[in-house]
Design brief:
two-stranded antiparallel sheet
Length: 203
């Protein structure tokens, strides 16, 4: 089984989403001995954002690309290959200003590719990545579930992966992390309990 592990927080060792995503991966490895993990730290080793150069690189024959275009094409090809090869994906997705980190969006723009991970048909768009499982670690400083603000970054990821044909999506949440030590500790403890007691109970 191939597992792709994505971190995107800019907070390094202080990141709750990193801590929890690593816990998910370790629990999954404990539940299944055959897992091979590919890891990407999108903050530590950022993928450049989708740009005109990205499109030019994709539309230029390999032998005609200069060094910059070659680099762009390789970034896209590697990110896409890792995603397509993965049977499962663990994504650490903190909420920044009601959405996902820009680093995570840059990665998404490299793996959402017409003809590769989705296609348009006469009946409408069709996702080409069915069969994958995605676990999203959702963290936020505030409390948004059931509130007027909603959990916009989760909704976005549901739509995005659904568009790619992935419907097996689970969320591990630790919200209210900025509401003081007591609330933070409970949120992290509850998330760790979900990881340890629920996610892989049937494995």
């Amino acid at each position: 089984m191939k597992l792709l592990h994505i971190d995107s927080s800019i907070l390094g060792d202080n990141s709750a989403s990193r801590q929890l995503s690593h816990s998910v991966v370790e629990a999954w490895k404990a539940a299944r001995a055959d897992i091979a993990v590919t890891y990407r730290d999108l903050a530590g080793d950022a993928i450049s954002h989708f740009s005109a150069a990205t499109l030019v690189a994709a539309g230029t024959a390999a032998e005609l690309r200069d060094a910059a275009l070659k680099h762009e094409a390789e970034l896209s090809a590697q990110a896409l290959a890792e995603f397509q090869a993965a049977d499962a994906v663990v994504i650490a997705a903190p909420m920044y200003n009601f959405t996902i980190p820009t680093q995570l969006k840059a990665w998404i723009d490299r793996i959402a590719v017409a003809g590769q991970t989705f296609r348009y048909t006469e009946a409408g768009p069709e996702g080409l990545c069915g069969g994958k499982k995605v676990i999203v670690v959702s963290t936020s400083g505030g409390l948004h579930v059931g509130q007027a603000t909603g959990v916009a970054h989760e909704d976005y990821l549901k739509v995005l992966f659904g568009f790619l044909g992935i419907t097996d999506i689970e969320f591990v949440r630790a919200h209210g992390l900025a509401y003081g030590e007591e609330v933070r500790n409970k949120a992290m403890t509850d998330a760790q309990a979900q990881i340890g007691e629920q996610l892989f109970a049937a494995a």
